[in-house]
Design goal:
This protein is mainly beta. Helix content is 11%, strand content 42%. The chain has one domain: Jelly Rolls (Sandwich). The chain contains three helices and 16 strands.
Length: 264
């Protein structure tokens, strides 16, 4: 009860105090170059998918969106999608919300699942089976799963699997094809030595109200007070650990209207 009350107060505080900051593409329609990426996402130390030409700029509802092409027969960001980590602040925040919209294009192949952007923190980008000790970093991304189901996919010190914990969306949830879905992720960092952090995810389907789909309290994100939330982790690709996760045909998704807000 106390945890729920704290989360409610925190949400009100974020709403009243922290304005949304936008991440907007500024280029032209067509191929999205490394130069374009460096302009829109300054300070990143790595990228996958840009150099290979898997991203283009498209117009969606009068806005510019990123379009990611997923290669048939491939998994992972190196060969089958895109990925980078954008540090939005040099100072780690204790409470951050990220929201964006995603459209899976017609004939999208969900197969067994794949990654969607989220948040992370710490000196190391913890993904792909990396050990999460609490002293090097953490990550919280979303996933689409078979038939368009959804889940949060999280690396944290107390995860039960080497490959992270999965927190499923409600059984009746499905990502649609051809329509925009807004997702919103909220992270509250724990007090050091306690499991009092939280993860919450909302999704807004077309013609529906925003809905809370993940609500995880008692989270311990870090054991180091210098680690908080400092980056948007733009990851999107099929996979999964083997080729059975790969699409058989070319498919694509669009991403736009990225916004975040943070409190120290």
């Amino acid at each position: 009860m106390l945890q729920s009350s704290f989360v409610a107060v925190l949400t009100i505080a974020l709403t009243l105090i922290a304005p949304w900051s936008q991440v907007l593409p500024k280029g032209e329609l067509g191929p999205y170059s490394v130069k374009d990426w460096k302009r829109d996402w300054p300070g990143c130390k790595f990228e996958d998918g840009i150099t290979e030409g898997r991203l283009t700029m498209v117009r969606q509802d009068n806005d510019l969106w990123w379009r990611v092409a997923y290669a048939p027969g491939e998994i992972g960001p190196e060969k089958g999608g895109a990925g980078w980590r954008w540090p939005f602040s040099s100072n780690a925040s204790q409470n951050v919300e990220l929201r964006y919209q995603v459209i899976f294009e017609e004939r999208f192949e969900f197969v067994s699942g794949g990654k969607l952007p989220g948040l992370c923190g710490g000196p190391k980008t913890i993904t792909g089976g990396d050990q999460c000790t609490g002293f090097d970093g953490w990550s919280a991304r979303l996933m689409w799963r078979k038939e368009g189901r959804g889940q949060a996919y999280v690396y944290h010190p107390n995860m039960k699997s080497k490959y992270g914990d999965e927190f499923d969306f409600p059984d009746d949830f499905r990502f649609p094809v051809g329509a925009a879905v807004q997702v919103r992720i909220a992270i509250a960092i724990n007090t050091i030595g306690k499991r009092d952090g939280s993860l919450r995810v909302w999704a807004k389907l077309p013609e529906q109200a925003e809905r809370l789909v993940v609500n995880q309290a008692a989270m311990e994100w870090t054991k180091d007070a210098s680690i908080g939330v400092d980056s948007i982790l733009f990851n999107t690709f099929h996979g999964g650990s083997d080729q059975s996760w790969a699409p058989k045909n070319p498919c694509a998704a669009r991403f736009g209207r990225f916004e975040y807000r943070a409190m120290p």
